[in-house]
Amino acid sequence: MRKTPFFKLSMRALIIILVLGMMWSCSFFGDRKKGQYIPIEFDLQQEIGPFEGLGANVPLSFYSRRMKVLQTFNELGIKYIRVKREAENWDDILALRASTSRLGIKWIYSLDAIPVEFLDDYGKLTDVTGFAGWWAEEVDELLYQDVPADYIELLDGPDVLRGDSLALSSDLYNELIHATRTELDLRDFQNVAIVGPGLSSTNIDNDLETWYMDLDQASFDMLPFWSVQIWEDRHTSGQVGVALEDLFDYLEEIESSKPLLVTAFATSETKFNEIQYPDPNKYDILGNLNTFETYYYSATFTLPYALRVYSNTLDLLKHKQVVPFLYQLYDAPADVKYKKRSWGLLDLNGGEKPVFSVLSHLMKRVPKRSTIISTLQPTQDGLNALSFKNQDEVLVTVLNEGLESKSIQVSLRGADRKLEIKSAALHFSLGIFPPDQGKQDIVETEELELKLRSDDANDSYVFTLMLKPQSIFVGEFQYK
């Protein structure tokens, strides 16, 4: 049968309708797919403040050239170290000081316990003037040994019970600041500053001494930094953000804008994804105990632990003028052998644990003299993100702690010039070892090719990314 012109026209119309329908369908489903991305948005004009670097606690009871201290500090962006001298190991201290001096790192000397000669039978400080004089003599000895102090912290954790009472009350602490400052000034150590109060937690409750409100104005003015640790049990799954928010709300109430040194943090969590790992405070000994084929293993050798410490680091940096101090730079033999402790970022041989690997991948790429940018909205679904920028570069990191892949769309608003990608990488592990194997998780790196597009409607640059389970993205961008 011959096809009529009307039939041909109808067929053409039908084809056009079908094609348009398919185009609409593709557009519809494309929009749906696009809408499934989890948004991560930054405004590069909304700065938290300058990046002040990180701090680290360094055991002085052991120093090894195998640690490559200069390289380690440089890769982690360390600007302060906190030390506690326990022995007359001046050669080790001098070697460490030589490395840190080249990088301009400041030293904070702290103390675990008040010498017994200044305490009563209940462990309470009774000779304030004597203890203040002891600190001045200690500073003098450090200068004589050519390892001068930049800062001193009068006592680590004065709010912790020692026996039946606190070694220091807040009133005694206030008195001790005055007495120590007087003793230091008498010896011409006006350049040595006191930081404090060195509390063991951020727990600010009405029924506890505040340690801040009880300072008189002179003591308040003497302290250039507040110092505090974050180890409270009430942290949700070992995360530090909530408790820090409480402390900053409190400091705002007392009209304090001093920088904060978080002198010890990591994570108190040792159970990740329903798997229990050995506590770093009491590691497991694995292997044949009757031979030399023994080794130690704790949560610090795992990627899940490293991801949580990484996330906590980002949360601390989201606050203005905060310097987070990594809890312990490396495992010391005395800790491992006698105390069964393994909090270090490096093992006994100077080898990198996962927490060092992931943090160094970020910190060694942070632009010089950069400021910190947080996300416009809090992250969810096990994600965390932060950005750093200077006049030439922008660095973005996004963390996925979850066990599932996450599709994200990162938006960088407020770029005042054209941005282009410099590098992009994903850091993850091919397999997380179970605790009974006692093997260290290995951090792998996959270089990525991103497509950065300009979104003129929203004055932003946008890229999409599929984040692997338990992975970290680090991307570098530069202005043209």
Report helical residue fraction.
25-40%
Number of helices: 10
Structural class: alpha/beta
Tell the overall outline.
Answer: globular
Structure commentary:
It is a single chain. The protein is α/β, with parallel strands linked by helices and 480 residues long. The chain has helices spanning 5-35, 69-76, 90-102, 128-144, 170-186, 217-222, 241-253, 303-317, 333-339, 354-363; strands spanning 38-43, 49-50, 54-57, 78-83, 106-109, 151-153, 161-162, 165-166, 193-199, 226-229, 260-265, 271-272, 275-276, 284-287, 294-297, 322-326, 371-373, 383-389, 393-400, 406-413, 419-428, 444-447, 453-455, 460-467, 471-479. The protein folds into 2 domains: 36-45 and 373-479, Immunoglobulin-like, CATH 2.60.40; 52-368, Glycosidases (TIM Barrel, Alpha-Beta Barrel). 29% of the residues lie in helices and 26% in strands. Helix 4 packs across helix 5 and helix 8 runs parallel beside helix 10.
